[in-house]
Amino acid sequence: MEGFDPVVRAYPLKFKAPTLGDNRSPEKRLRDALSQELNQEQLYFPLQIARELPDVLPSSGYKVRAIVAKDHCGWRLCGCVPDEKPSKVLGLAVDLGSTSVVFYLVDLVSGKTIETLSKENPQRAHGEDILDRIIFAQRGGLKQLQKEVIDLFNGSAKELCKKAEATTSELFFMSVAGNTTMCHFFLALDPSHICKEPYIPAVNRFDIIFPSELGLDINPNAPVYVLPNVGSYFGGDLIAGILASKMAEREEISLLVDVGTNAEVVLGNKDWLVACAGAAGPALEGGILSCGMRAQPGAIERVEISPVDLSVHIKTIGDEPPKGLCGSGIIDLLAAMFEAGLVDQTGKLMIQRDPSRMTKIGHEWAYIVAFETETAHKQPVYITQSDIKNLIRSKGAMYTILNVVIQSVGITFDDIENFYVAGAFGNYIDPKKAITIGMLPDIPLERFKPLGNSAGKGAVRVLLDSSSMARIDEICDKITYLEMNVRGDFMNQLTGALFLPHTDLSRFPNVAKRLNLR
Amino acid sequence: MEGFDPVVRAYPLKFKAPTLGDNRSPEKRLRDALSQELNQEQLYFPLQIARELPDVLPSSGYKVRAIVAKDHCGWRLCGCVPDEKPSKVLGLAVDLGSTSVVFYLVDLVSGKTIETLSKENPQRAHGEDILDRIIFAQRGGLKQLQKEVIDLFNGSAKELCKKAEATTSELFFMSVAGNTTMCHFFLALDPSHICKEPYIPAVNRFDIIFPSELGLDINPNAPVYVLPNVGSYFGGDLIAGILASKMAEREEISLLVDVGTNAEVVLGNKDWLVACAGAAGPALEGGILSCGMRAQPGAIERVEISPVDLSVHIKTIGDEPPKGLCGSGIIDLLAAMFEAGLVDQTGKLMIQRDPSRMTKIGHEWAYIVAFETETAHKQPVYITQSDIKNLIRSKGAMYTILNVVIQSVGITFDDIENFYVAGAFGNYIDPKKAITIGMLPDIPLERFKPLGNSAGKGAVRVLLDSSSMARIDEICDKITYLEMNVRGDFMNQLTGALFLPHTDLSRFPNVAKRLNLR
Q1: I need a labelling partner for A457 at 20 to 30 A (CA). Which of A108, A133, A494, B33 fits?
Q2: Residue B478 contacts by C-beta under 8 Å, 6 or more apart in sequence?
Q3: Cβ-based contacts of B192 with chain A (< 8 Å)
Q4: Cβ of A47 and B202 within 8 Å?
Q5: How far apart (Å, rounded) are the C-alpha atoms in residues A81 and A298?
């Protein structure tokens, strides 16, 4: 397997019984044998294992399996068991999201992910919005937020190990990727300064932590590695994405964007990396639109509007009757409405273009995507004029962030070989539609590459490639972080991006040509 | 101070308040600043300190003192406190003896030992003899033995810190030197195999341990370093002696001998080291002689016998009335008796030489050193014919061990530039007397150098010189250990050494000349 050099290794070892001619201690025998295997790299030998070894060696007939895990300064002995009943060698990778927490149980002998488990983040009870949770933490709730996620980890580790017929003591390494705030909650670090100027996390780089420090029920010697953050709005989830995409290992220039409430962007290659994050607005995720909803069954995820008869064709998640619009559906909808002439370049609803679907909601016009007769809740699903303005502001911010980053290094979008789209709905965005509304740049479609769950993939890669931790340190050292809040050009550029697709059509030649725009 | 590069360092650091232009986390700011100071050496940043730092930095006006301690893989951040009330920077060195435990409180800013405390080892309640304690451990008492010594450590640390107007949380490093068995008790390691063939300890090299693993009440991040042992009968106390003498750092050849129940010997220089240990017999320590006693007030420590009138002149510890003979007194006594013709070369008492002091004790003759009228307990202090035989066997074993070691590398005693005498009564032996009886080789007196409490001195040096731990690893790797039990030449050579000073007088030319022996 390419790059398979896991963070945990198991060595079968055979010894001779001690004699007067060789009366090294069990500890020294094991250390000498492992020193050879580990190419003289440093080995830390925990006291508890040294205590058990004098029994284990003779009782196993001097045939044992030694398990070592990579830590901050070399290797750490995590166990030494009789070879006849060898331990499983497992690692746990965690995508610690604010909505869902996804656990990957990885067999570190085969390199295979053998079980996966997705759980709701129990902290949602204190607010869907991260800010609400930060306020809860500031009011004395930090320990509780930590406990909730630790309990979730312990329960999930147990559940996964049971499925795999293993024990949690066979979990020898844990890697955790989450955004800066989630990692602060996990480690009970004060998140107060994350969300206010000058936006400082308590910690950027987490050193290896041990399970007892957090109350984690895994092997007590298992290193716990939490991916670092570069800033308050650029967390370990993004670093995991950089690692998963391998963009920092290649000559060619790639761009990685995580589209969510914040747009987080990394641009670069093996020699340099530039990053920034900025509020792209929750409209893109559907969060604040009149009929926006999460990507759950019943959410409209695809929309097409016939240019001939203006008929609307929708696809919902789970093919259930529609309830609302999720992120990819919203982008599809705006693109389709624009292509069909239902909105103009400023985003204004063209009421006369299809009066049958235009209606007043309160004081303002709206376009009906699904009539009440078609929906699950017998309410229409629609998009209002304000929704469209919000959406255009969000997509404009997204594009502007990308453009500022590109310009900061003096290249153009054409220089980008790989355009990775990560994040909650990165998988589901149709790049062509996103280009049509001017959210993503007008480059060849084949350059867009969905990354899937990049945080999870990056966390798994940490387990499978023992050089990842050093590589991540290099990535962090290399990143130049542009603080979008302090860049005047952002506001200047944003204005031009508040059009469909943009005031400057030369930036979107294919869209202009296809839609015959001038 | 020569070689003063302590294992704990304190750095006063000043920061600017964070801004949008520099919004590194408190952790990253501290890490960046320390990285410079530490010459980019690895720094481990414990989670608990990362938790406290976001409060400490602003509340101190961004003026702090960071304290780092050397651990197994670089430096470990142990504290970060406001600079206006700086922490004391203390280390604790411990000579963990089976009889006494001596604590040295060291100020790691000045390098001075500011307090010393000597305590009886509470494990003596389970037997004066280490073997009795091993049996006690095997019968389920190991945890108790550990607890007794940990309690002693905690109580003594508290007592010392109180004297120094410090707190135990200001103890940032602990180094412990003891023999192999004592260290096993301290760490609750099974000592069963130490005392039976093939004499294997559970552990040779102890990695850095942290206070919570042992229940030590010192700074929770303070590394605890236990000096390694080379074998069951060659412990960290001897390694400390090698370190204290600096013999492994010099070109010239030195010999270090620790005279006790076992004789432990190291020979070598900066390029090579040979070691061995063997039973020299407790007679040298006075332990088993009829009137032997520990070196306490009332013990006869110096003896002279006038060659003219055979009058006996003694000096006791504390100048109190005599109660018995301690080690140095016994060696003096035998040498004086031999010089005065009171014993012959075979060790036979010459009854007629001074009938006034010869008496029968039970079936056998004895020589009275102090009459009952002179002593504290109104009993005579004497040495019997059997005592003398025992003593000669012990001194003969001592000499033979030295000789075997010397021969194993093909040198002679004349090649030894420094002859270090360590151990409980190493300080008190008069080398001239020890040479007279053939216990130590007949080399110029100025080459003998008492080392004092070499275990304590070595443990203190670990605190004062951060390269010591690496040096000790080198020492251990370099030592060739001769197992005296498996060397046939030992028994062959011993026979010749059962004379005063030796059957082969050419080995003791100065003694032979002075005493006109043939």
Answers
A1: A133
A2: B248, B268, B272, B273
A3: 54
A4: no
A5: 51
Determine the pLDDT at residue A2: 59
Substitution target in B30, B76, B186, B203 with the highest count of A β-carbons within 10 Å is B203
Instruction: Give the mean model confidence (pLDDT) for residues A413-435.
Output: 88
Q: Which of B82, B103, B121 is the last residue of a domain?
A: B82
For residues B204 and B175, membership in a common domain is answered with yes
pTM: 0.91
CB contact under 8 A, B24 and A204: yes
pLDDT of residue A279 exceeding 80, the answer is no
- Residue showing tokens 């869209």: A511
> Given B54, B74, B213, which is nearest A73 (Cβ)?
B74
Question: Average model confidence (pLDDT) for chain B?
Answer: 93
Predicted confidence (pLDDT) per residue in B72-120, tens digit: 889 999 999 999 877 899 999 999 999 899 999 999 999 999 999 999 9
Q: Is the peptide bond before A321 cis (omega within 30 degrees of 0)?
A: no
- Structure confidence by residue, pLDDT tens digits, B301-353: 999 999 889 999 999 999 999 999 998 999 999 999 999 999 999 999 999 99
Residue B513 lies in a domain: yes
Residues of chain B contacting residue A189, judged by C-beta atoms under 8 Å apart: 50-51, 54
Q: What is each CA distance from A202 to A232, A233, B33, B358, in whole angstroms? A: 9, 13, 16, 83
Domain shared by B474 and B364, yes or no: yes
A133 in helix, strand or coil? Answer: helix
Contact assignment for B25 to A483 by CB distance below 8 Å:
no
A vs B: CB pairs below 8 A: 140
| Domain final residue pick, B226, B254, B280 | B226
Residues in A touching B31 (Cβ below 8 Å): 205
- Give the structural domain span for B76: 8-82
**Burial of A68 from C-beta contacts in 10 A (0-12 / 13-18 / 19+):** buried
Helices (H), B71-171: 130-136, 142-163
B52 to chain A, closest Cα gap in Å? 9
> Confidence class of residue B288 from pLDDT cuts 50, 70 and 90?
confident
Pick A25's closest partner by Cβ from B19, B200, B213: B200
The answer to whether residues A419 and A508 belong to one domain is yes
